[in-house]
Amino acid sequence: MQKKSRIVLALGGNALQADPKDTRAESQLVTAKETAVAIVDLIEEGHEVIIAHGNGPQVGQIIATYEAAAQTNPGIPVMPFPECGAMSQGYIGYHLQQGIREEMKNRGLDKNVATIVTQVVVDKNDPGFENPTKPVGSFFNEEEAKILMDKKGYTIKEDSGRGWRRVVASPEPLDVVEAPIIKTLVEAGHIVITVGGGGIPVIKEDMGALKGVPAVIDKDFASEKIAEILEADYLIILTAVEKVSIYFNTPEQKELDTMTIGEAKQYIEEGHFAPGSMLPKVKAAIKFVESKAGRKALITSLEKAKEGIQGKTGTILQ
Ligand SMILES: Nc1ncnc2c1ncn2[C@@H]1O[C@H](COP(=O)(O)OP(=O)(O)O)[C@@H](O)[C@H]1O
Ligand SMILES: NC(=O)OP(=O)(O)O
């Protein structure tokens, strides 16, 4: 990799919550500080780094808290979904800001880091709205689910025998509303945290007004979108595995160092990547690499990020 690349870094769930059962903010702050080490490794090497991240567990927790409060006191209104997404961007961004700032200070790096509350435009006719699939928030029994469907108009589905859960759409990201300011900050040398949780999904109404919609955009696709807009050199998707595999979790499992676009598409056809986990990452990587000649995508683990961009590990698409 050439020195001083522009890199969009998409942080997976393990970068924000080390133990999915430990949802305390204090623990998430500790994890964010650990995650900052890998991020600052890239900043220290002179790269321009833009950080994106998921929010599935965190937005679910925020919603569950409001739901629980409303159950004990019906006077408390349930917070609308886009507002919950915005809250998750705010607090995750705050944790990352603290971690990155501290790590930069420890290494004598004089840079600023800030989170942009980011809205992402989706199409109100996106087919995802017809078939919401992304489960969020707490579990209900069938009776509670029926009441919520009637009273609030939620779509609630049975989730793998575990109970009933609200499901929201996961539409495709089309544009990032705050892109111009993100670009200005990046070009001024600042570290920006953006499209948290895939961004707050908004639709364009008549006269161009924006309206938040109850949906969760996939953070890998939103990261790809902002990487394209910012004309990044690299999209790096950091997750829990060092390399993408074919025949994943079978005795024939084979880790991949590289994938051409043709190979990646063939592996998708053959069903090697699980929907909802590795599949969106590989699709986002393909889209980014196809968007302009010379662009590269890397999928690797947080711990291996530095080695990955040095070409020593991870799975690269180019
Ligand atoms: N073909 C594959 N190769 C590698 N990992 C895979 C594959 N298919 C599914 N996975 C799983 O996908 C996980 C990454 O998805 P997920 O945990 O949803 O992402 P995130 O890091 O964004 O939270 C990996 O940790 C691994 O368990
Ligand atoms: N928005 C989103 O894709 O979040 P997760 O990565 O946490 O599922």
TrEMBL record:
GO molecular function: carbamate kinase activity
Catalyses which reaction(s): hydrogencarbonate + NH4(+) + ATP = carbamoyl phosphate + ADP + H2O + H(+)
Protein name: Carbamate kinase
Similarity remark: Belongs to the carbamate kinase family.
GO aspect biological process, one term: L-arginine deiminase pathway
Keyword tags: Arginine metabolism, Kinase, Transferase
Ranges that cross the membrane: none
Any Pfam family matching the protein: AA_kinase
Organism: Natronincola ferrireducens
Pathway where this protein functions: Metabolic intermediate metabolism; carbamoyl phosphate degradation; CO(2) and NH(3) from carbamoyl phosphate: step 1/1
Domain Aspartate/glutamate/uridylate kinase: 6-300
A single Gene Ontology CC term: cytosol
